[in-house]
Fold each of these.
Amino acid sequence: MARSTTAPVPTSVRVSAPRRLSGEQRREVVLDAACRVFSAKGFHAASIEEIAREAGITKPVIYHHFASKQELHSAVFEHYARQLLAAAASHGVKGTPQERLHDIVKGMFTFAHANPHVWQLLLGDSTDPETARLQQKLRAIGTRVSAERLLPEPFFKPEPGLSRRQSAEVIAQLTRSAVDGLVTWSLEHPSIPRGRLITAAANLLWTGLSGTAASAGQ
């Protein structure tokens, strides 16, 4: 019998088989794809078929991790909301009060421009009822967290007629709403230098905060 003349493929040029994703890695792929589709179309218009195509997988894989589109939507929102809150908590921890405020504003801009589809889902303008409901819950958490950070600040003085906590919540709501809105606007106007928007927003907010403290101390 003739011996085969086919030479073995050198190890250095062998094509490796695609690396198999772990269950957790595949779940991350699904969450990212779902976030992109939900942010673009909203909960009701999005379909599992489209999310599967975006993720490069089949529908059964999605249903292996999530029992329904509703469960997937909630999981996506919770997953990225945790990331946003963690990003906010990691900024504004050093420096003077004014420097910390600037860093917090910068952190929100940085997060949004690095993850525009995530920001759109979490805090962008939405007419989708299910998304709007979850957005409202996240905004309430953001206001509460911001108020908690403001309460121990020595420069912060409550407004006359309001308790310290009530005053902190009012200011937190105003500042959070302003920053969220400006960040969303900046994503729609990418030609405007982001650094200038951050500086302008931080300076205006600080003027308001420091002015409130000064008037309260009179």
Amino acid sequence: MKKWECTVCGYIHEGEEPPDECPVCSAEKSLFVELVEKTADQTTAPQPQPEVKPTLLRRMYAMASTLIVKHHLHPIMVHTPNGIVPMALVFLLIAAGFSLPLFETAALYSLVFVLIAMPLVGFTGYVMWQQRYRGALTTMFKIKICASIVTVTLLCTLIIWRVVQPDIVTTASTGRWVFLGLSSLLVGAVGAAGHIGGKLVFGSRKG
């Protein structure tokens, strides 16, 4: 039985032909390569490459990339939006339902904290995407990137709205329900990105 490896995420498929689409990262059929065991006669010595001295910035980026991948910093960092954003929504619902401004303030600070953390979340995600998945732009990665953009956009919108209109949640109005609706959409965007990330991390190897 032949074995085929997805060059994007490392998924191993067994069969006479590679699948039309990777079940893990949605990479197309052409991105699969057949795994063939090499004998000693087939092994060739690598050709020497001309040495190019990297710049200081490139060395720093390479060092940071190595640490990010080695210590799984992106999966660690994504726990910030995945954990705090749903909590903020609960605080907003409590503030709206019981007219408790303290919970609304706590939700605001929570969203601000998540927004501050998003650059690091995005950078570690970019490094993981480039290093582990070779920058492949499959459907799953497109959805994850879009969900991240939506997350940042909604965070900025909600925070600015709250600053401009401090009583938006505690005062009964149509705007309050729009605000809560956008907050729910934010939870959905964070959840979608987290779900895809979890599938890539925990479902990328087989066999």
